[in-house]
């Protein structure tokens, strides 16, 4: 979404005098656990990076979020590393966020160490997450921290050249390429799906799990893994279900569907959650895939939501006290629901789906008739 030059100039004038103080993004929901987080990179020696065009092996960046009890030491960690924060601040200045917005944000996490006790003596279910095209995995960190606090191991993937910017631990920066044609989108979808499958395989390697979930003396439950995605990540979630038989279920947050799954369908639980007016009636890909979903399935519409309601962005604007100061038209990106409420809705429905698929087997909140979330409409 672009802004006119006149509006952009007005925004720059309006926000030039604003200063941003440090702000902590909260864990949303009544969840019982502290959460530790790490970032690492993994390289797949069996695959070339088809976007790099230089015969390098495919590497990905991964953020992990995992619940702990009796946390010995909390810490405030930057929401993003420096180069990524600067990139995002410049990018979103065009939408009215003042300079330094992302540099000012932090997450309160448990300092990962052998002194932090796992929240369970049993292996925990695992959740794999893939974000939107042209979007950093880090723009979902607060949401995914909240999901982890409900008792899940969560891994969020950056797909280099597909994400707008990926900052590796050694300081290497990969900015996104222009992915717009049908062929490019299909290549991105295949690459994302292979990234998810590669990460899933790595979870059987104890040295990798110790790197990702340090000092936690327990692995994930390999029989209990689900995949979630936003936008193109939602299409990748469906494609991963098709490719990885052991995945228990998948959830698509607001993503148009692509690829073989449209006709092949799925035999495991799959849920669609769309922003206002994104339903089977407005997205032909949703109608096509719906007819071929043979397992448990649900479709929800969130009234007042827009495409990036399913990220941290609405919460970021609320935390920075900007939600009522942004320019007209921003609701087309962030929706009209207050930021804390927006992420509360997303986390509630994501965790309800995960609880059903990976824990209790009961649909709970997804069964309908819940008055807590009047914004959410069950479509099918």
UniProtKB/TrEMBL annotation:
Residues 1-22 form the signal peptide. Its EC number is 3.1.1.47. It comes from Lentithecium fluviatile CBS 122367. GO terms for biological process: lipid catabolic process. SUPFAM superfamilies: alpha/beta-Hydrolases. InterPro entries: AB_hydrolase_fold (IPR029058). GO terms for molecular function: 1-alkyl-2-acetylglycerophosphocholine esterase activity. Keywords: Hydrolase, Lipid degradation, Lipid metabolism, Signal. This is 1-alkyl-2-acetylglycerophosphocholine esterase.
């Amino acid at each position: 979404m672009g802004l006119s030059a006149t509006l952009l100039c007005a925004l720059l004038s309006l926000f030039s005098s604003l200063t941003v103080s440090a702000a902590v993004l909260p864990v949303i929901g009544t969840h019982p656990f502290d959460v530790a987080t790490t970032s690492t990179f993994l390289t797949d020696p069996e695959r070339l990076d088809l976007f790099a065009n230089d015969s390098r092996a495919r590497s990905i960046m991964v953020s992990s979020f995992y619940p702990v009890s009796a946390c010995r030491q909390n810490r405030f960690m930057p929401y993003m590393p420096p180069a990524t924060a600067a990139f995002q601040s410049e990018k979103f200045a065009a939408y009215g966020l003042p300079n330094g917005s992302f540099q000012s944000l932090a997450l309160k996490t448990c300092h990962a160490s052998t002194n932090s006790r796992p929240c369970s003596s049993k292996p925990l279910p695992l959740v794999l997450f893939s974000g939107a095209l042209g979007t950093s995995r880090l723009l979902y960190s607060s949401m995914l921290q909240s999901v982890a606090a409900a008792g899940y191991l969560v891994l969020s993937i950056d797909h280099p050249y597909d994400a707008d910017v990926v900052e590796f631990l050694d300081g290497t920066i990969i900015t996104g390429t222009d992915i717009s044609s049908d062929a490019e989108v299909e290549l991105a979808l295949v690459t994302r799906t292979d990234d998810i499958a590669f990460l899933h395989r790595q979870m059987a390697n104890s040295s990798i799990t110790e790197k990702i979930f340090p000092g936690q003396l327990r692995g994930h439950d390999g029989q209990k893994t689900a995949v979630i995605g936003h936008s193109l990540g939602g299409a990748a979630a469906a494609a991963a279900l098709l490719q990885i038989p052991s995945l228990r279920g998948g959830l698509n947050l607001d993503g148009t569907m692509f690829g073989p799954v449209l006709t092949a369908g799925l035999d495991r639980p799959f849920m669609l959650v769309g922003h206002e007016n994104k339903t089977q009636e407005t997205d032909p890909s949703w109608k096509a895939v719906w007819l071929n979903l043979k397992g448990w399935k649900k479709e929800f519409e969130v009234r007042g939501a827009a495409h990036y309601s399913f990220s941290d962005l609405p919460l970021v604007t609320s935390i920075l006290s900007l939600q009522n100061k942004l320019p007209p038209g921003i609701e087309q990106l962030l929706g009209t629901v207050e930021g804390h409420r927006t992420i509360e809705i997303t986390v509630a429905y994501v965790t309800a789906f995960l609880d059903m698929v990976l824990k209790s087997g009961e649909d709970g909140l997804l069964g309908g008739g819940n008055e807590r979330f009047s914004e959410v409409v069950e479509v099918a």
